[in-house]
Amino acid sequence: MAELSYREAVAAGIAQEMERDERVVFLGEDIGAAGGVFKATVGLYERFGPRRVRDTPISELAILGAAMGAAMTGLRPIAEIMFSDFLACCWDYVANEIAKTRYMTNGQFTMPLVIRTANGAGSRFGAQHSQSVENWAMAIPGIKVVAPSNPADVKGLLAAAIRDPDPVLFFEHKSLYAMKGEVPDGEWVEPLGRAKVLQQGDDITIVALAAMVPRALEAARILADEHRIFATVIDLRTLVPLDTQTVLAEVIRTGRLFTVEENPRLCGWGAEVSSIVIEECFYDLDQPVVRITTPHIPLPAADALEDAVVPSVARIVSEVLHAADFRAPVGHGR
Amino acid sequence: MSKPDTASIPAAAGTAPLRGADPHTAVASILPQDRLVLYRLLLELRYCEKRANDLFLQNLIKGTSHLALGQEAVAAGFGHAMEPDDYTFCTYRGHHHTLARGASMTGVLGELMGRECGLLGGKGGSMHLTSVKHGVMGSYAIVGGHLPIAVGAAWSAQYRGTRQVAVAFFGDGTTNIGAFHESLNLAAVWKLPVVFVCENNLYMEYTPIGNVTAVANPAADRAAAYGLPSIIVDGNDVEAVYRVAREAFALARSGGGPSLVECKTYRHSGHSRADPAKYRPPEELQAWLERDPVPAYRLRLLAAGVAEDVLRRMEDDTLKQVDEATAACKASPPPPTAVAYTDVWADGGNAWRN
User: Fold this and answer.
1) Looking at the domain assignment, is residue B13 inside a domain?
2) N or C: which end of chain B has fewer CB within 10 A?
3) ipTM for the whole complex
4) If you average pLDDT over residues A44-62, what whole number do you get?
């Protein structure tokens, strides 16, 4: 095991795959000589050279279009879109071209490409550089959606995304880039589509994603220590494919589901998870599902405002206690 | 030898000199067998497209369609100049480009008719014709969407060290969309083997391109911004197109980077099925119909000494080919509904959850 930061794990995952597969190429703005604006790709340009690590102009259409054309003709490109907000500039490629071309051509193409992008709040960048847009991507048939919460998953899931024969939108969380964690030595690949149960408790199930995972874990610690409410915490890791079986099993065991979502409320990923739970294990529920989300507002810039609206540890604790107060008693296991 | 007809191109087509407009020069560099192939291609594209129109009128083709009647010389000239492993990327007006690479008429008409025999099994339709085995890397229905994709295919060819060239065909309207400019810049900076071919048919959907564009030649006048020469060709002269295509491909294969070619042409019908094209001045339409690329080339071949019965036999054969394809399509069943659920993913399925 080596301790890597989340940003170092990005470069490590890319390097691992570029080393083993000459077809893997990487393009984006400032990714090469500059090492990335988040310093997540430091060293790749020096190691693999300008032929495989290509700096582009500020041309999001050309970046994703070029990645697609390369993927259709035998390469396995990784494209960086610097901020996930900028996906709106090239959404045609995500929604109309990359995701649909295999289907429309009756399987004549495969589309093995990865779009990496920095997602989420916490940097006080305001409404056009802080969004969590994973739920946009989830709404499009034909693209896989991944959002890791820790360095080991960054490396392992990124490697799996690069090896995947389908297009993958890989959301890195800006506020996690400095996070450190153990990453297994040697070749490391984590399969897509498997949620991870980080801890098991008998009272409630909390499902979280990306930067909400460490907050859910801290909230669970407080709930256990101070309120004797014991939580299962699930890191969803991948929205498409969605590991519903892991979620359903824990919800059936605990009878209570809380989702913690950074995306704005309407049609957030938790809405789909809740819908599946309600359709498939309604009679195992002891209380309504509770979605803890950013409100349906653009994100404000000031730290006091941003912190007030994105789900916090204190808000997760408070929402759990509030729901528990007037529902069936918790704390007795099931 | 028929007289060069460039003088009759309406003023709206621009006043820049036309490359390859001198038929003596053009014919001198083109072998007799090439000429017959070019004429055969023109016939196939013309007859098949006319059949598509007939099938529409019989309500056997649903949805929409964008005919390229009048623009066949661009597809034939470029198509014949391409190597089998070169890449074609085209727009929703792409029947002619798909056929020009050798895709079957049954596959094309069958896809338009929503039959099982269609190139895409009924899943793509008229606007998405694709035949990877013929190098047809797709027809794209978002204006300009395919230019960056062609750039990517050219990047891939450069990276893999092949001699393949990617060709992106597009209309004059595309020159005002951002993807056009991003693509030209990146292709020029990376010196990619890609040829951008503007089929300037004078109308951006229902609007004269000149009314909404800051320059007279919507593609060629932008070339200088990307360090590329301005190339304008008579898009109704199949040999002129063929010659320019060969030059552009030779440059791309030698590592010389991209080319941008503006072909002056005209679409004989409206933008799409819904458009009767009443906005066009009758005299303009008449002037261009007199420059119809198919009969013009027939006259040129006759003048060059090709026997008329050779051409007539070719015409009869092509019509028979279209009739046979039509019959095959009418006999083909609709696709089984099961295919609506296949090939979202590379594993052939559509599962998004466990």
Assistant:
1) no
2) N
3) 0.95
4) 98
Nearest to B351 among A96, A112, A241 (CB): A241
- Decide: pTM greater than 0.90: yes
Contact B182 A240 (CB under 8 A): no
Domains of chain A: 2-183 (3.40.50.970), 196-325 (3.40.50.920)
Provide the CA B33 distance to its chain's centre, in angstroms. 22
Q: Report the pLDDT value the prediction gives residue B299, as an integer from 0 to 100.
A: 98
B346 closest CB neighbour out of A97, A165, A245: A165
Answer whether A57 sits within 8 Å of B189, measured CB to CB: yes
Taking residue A282's Cβ as centre, other Cβ atoms within 10 Å add up to: 9
Give the number of domains in chain B.
Answer: 1
CA proximity to B20, closest of B234, B299, B262, B266: B234
CB contacts, 8 Å: A61 with chain B: 148, 178-179, 182-183
DSSP string, B96-151: HHHHHTT--HHHHHHHHTT-TTSTTTTSS-GGG--BGGGTEEEEE-STTTHHHHHH
* Spatial separation of the C-alpha atoms in residues B10 and B283, rounded to whole Å: 10
DSSP state of B94: -
Q: Does B100 reside within a domain? A: yes
Q: Does an H or E element contain B173, and which? A: none
A223's enclosing H/E stretch is helix A212-227
The residue in chain B having the minimum alpha-carbon distance to the alpha carbon of residue A142 is B344
Tokens of B94: 């792409």
Q: B128, A240: Cβ pair inside 8 Å? A: no
The pLDDT value given to residue A136: 96
Determine contact, residues B79/B114, Cβ cutoff 8 Å.
Answer: no
Q: Is residue B88 part of a domain?
A: yes
Distance from C-alpha of B113 to C-alpha of B127, rounded to nearest angstrom: 12
Token pair in block for residue B39: 């004429």
Closest CA to A328 of A226, A255, A220: A255
Q: For the segment B124-176, what is each residue's pLDDT rounded down to a tens digit? A: 999 999 999 999 999 999 999 999 999 999 999 999 999 999 999 999 999 99
CA A141/CA A134 separation, integer angstroms: 13
Contacts of A74 in chain B (CB under 8 A): 156, 160
| Residues A285-316 pLDDT 10s | 999 999 999 999 999 999 999 999 999 999 99
CATH, residue B154: 3.40.50.970
Q: Which residues contact A227 (CB under 8 A, 6 or more apart)?
A: A317, A321, A331
Q: For residue A263, give the 3-state DSSP assignment.
A: strand
